[in-house]
Amino acid sequence: MLEQKNKILFAIEEISQQMATLARDIHAQPELSFEEHHASAALQAPLQAAGFSVTRGVAGLKTAFRARLDSGKPGPHVALLAEYDALPELGHACGHNLIGTASVAAAVALATSGTLQSGVLEVIGTPAEEEGGGKIIMADNGVFSGIDAVMMFHPREKNMMTRGALACVDATFKFYGKASHAASAPHLGISALDAVIQTFVGINALRQFFTDDVRVHGIITHGGSATNIVPAYAEAKFLMRAASVSGLQTVRSKVFAAAQGAAAMSGARLEIEEGLTYAERNNNLTLAGLFQANLEQLGLAAEAAPERGGVGSSDIGNVSQLTAAIHPYLRIGDVIPHTPEFAVAAASDRGIEAMLNAARALAMTTLDLQQADTLKNVRNEFLAWQSSVSQEK
């Protein structure tokens, strides 16, 4: 096994400059959710060159893809997940340029080193993690059926193997009022903006009654057209989070009630557009232990994840409900995601090195899964978790 892993390390060293260029190219051309045409094509190219067969437009998503390499021998079916969408205004301030490239680098190394001797390896390109839930759509379309384990990495400010994530859902509240002259005939108008403001007030009044895991945050996306016109239309978007999907439903009902109450108070009519629900993350501890052991072989130590707070949400949570999954984090600097500083770090030398170390550990962990007993342990943990969840329901 050591000899095989050394082959992987050599293969990644051989492509390190190519992968660094790829990550920085995607970083320099940030694309929003479902619009990642350049990044998707750029990630597919080295996979095709390494012998993977590529299918585009997976699950009806134009920028989704799956690249498949079949050894022709029975064995594990492993998928490395690629993300590559960026944030509005901030670009790659969540480091998805590194995420996608790490999975591609790991897969190419496994293919070119000749170490993938059994089973099937895939790289699944999953668009729209930030806004739209690409993995949720793909999961609902059966993309992850039959896969034994999925893996990816995420850049962060420290190395963490089993950090959790909150369930979340977004909702857009659209209020329809009645326009009127704000000075000469305000009494004839119905202010949709007042309904938005009262929605914020109502939600803020709820905060003392939320449990500690809950987060609710919103923005006003439309507040009117002119100060001297009573706003006939106003709109706000909120994101609700909780530790689990079941807890999220309680939060959702309270937030929706606040918006409905604001509409009743103002006289405006309310329409609600709800997004997809991101599930909480189920970390496979056995698989995470394999990844950590490989990381330690590279000279990197893991730190404990925070016991409370400090977590966001990701659509890999939905995938982790279907199969064994890990989403470890590797340090790229003293930076927090979704900030300009993080965007800079995602193209830095330190960011590139973290991406290459992630690729090394992902590839080595994929190799570990070719051992029948190791795969069985990973699968048994997932099946036991799945059974416990079914019993709770």
TrEMBL record:
The keyword Coiled coil does not apply. Keywords: Hydrolase. One of its GO terms (biological process) is folic acid catabolic process. GO terms for cellular component: cytoplasm. The keyword Hydrolase applies. SUPFAM superfamilies: Bacterial exopeptidase dimerisation domain, Zn-dependent exopeptidases. One of its GO terms (molecular function) is dipeptidase activity. This is Peptidase M20 domain-containing protein 2. It comes from Pantoea latae. The lineage of its organism: Bacteria, Pseudomonadati, Pseudomonadota, Gammaproteobacteria, Enterobacterales.
